[in-house]
Amino acid sequence: MPRFAPHPDRRAAVVTGASSGIGRATAVALAAAGHPVVLGARRVERCEEIAAAIRADGGEALALPLDLTDTESIAAFADVAMAKLGPIEILVSNAGDVQPITAVGARPDEFARQLQVNLLGAQALVHYLVPPMIERSRGDVVFVTSEVALSPRTHMAAYVASKSGLEGFAMAMAMEAEGTGVRVGIVRPGPSSTEQGSTWDASKIDELIESWTHWGLMRHSGSLLPDGLADAVLAMVSVPKGTRYAVLEVQPEAPVSITQRGNS
């Protein structure tokens, strides 16, 4: 594998779950900021379309297949990413799987799949990509988690367990990385408008909304757009050395209420 001398103005980045939503927006934002980007996802054809658009705009981008349930796929992805773009300076662990399943009703295999994608796959990617960062004494690792890690939601037991575990893992890793030159941070989104949940049955969505309303989890109808979360990731990896953003929680602004406006 060829080795490249690190250059502060050329910080290659890896983004997982880059075929849509937050991952897609993050890859585009990083490329626009001048970072070569590796886009990883199972839907590699969609990643290639995004990478082609980035290249057409003068950026540097590469699409590679990545299946976070397959350790061999993760290892191959990491090897090719480093071989093609040189040292990876930024890792954005964004890929996620969420299904509307309960703690009791979930089949063990579907519960385990969400833990594999959201937590265990993230750790495997860290295992392959972060040691070279530590050797070079520079790098940024960003974990995209969820507000459910702090405020669990019903009918999302596996997602809650995996994202809570991911935050614990990220915080432990940040402690271990202290003094190595590698910064570790969490971007924690609130309710977001992405493709996640778009395949759920309408009756199941109604059931979830009723349950979340019962538990006081539906504050308003606002939701985050992917570009807003991409801005948070870019801010985290762009802060000058000497500063580390540990956690950036991003919440949607509530729609303007005529009632509230009249009371102001």
Keywords summarizing the entry:
alpha/beta, Rossmann fold, about 15% strand, seven-stranded parallel beta sheet, about 260 residues, about 45% helix
Describe this structure in words.
The chain has 264 residues and is α/β, with parallel strands linked by helices. It has one domain (12-252): 3-Layer(aba) Sandwich (Rossmann fold). Helices cover 46% and strands 15% of the residues. It has eight helices and seven strands, in the order E-H-E-H-E-H-E-H-E-H-E-H-H-E-H. The protein has helices spanning 21-32, 44-56, 71-85, 108-136, 157-177, 202-214, 226-238, 258-263; strands at 12-16, 37-41, 61-65, 88-93, 139-144, 182-189, 247-250. It has a seven-stranded parallel beta sheet with strand order 3-2-1-4-5-6-7, with helices on both faces. Helix 2 (44-56) links the parallel strand 2 (37-41) and strand 3 (61-65). Helix 1 (21-32) runs parallel beside helix 2, helix 1 (21-32) packs across helix 7 (226-238) and helix 3 packs parallel to helix 4. It is globular, with a radius of gyration of 19 Å. The relative contact order is 0.13.
Brief summary:
Keywords: Oxidoreductase. With 264 residues, the chain is α/β, with parallel strands linked by helices. The protein has helices at residues 21-32, 44-56, 71-85, 108-136, 157-177, 202-214, 226-238, 258-263, and strands at 12-16, 37-41, 61-65, 88-93, 139-144, 182-189, 247-250.
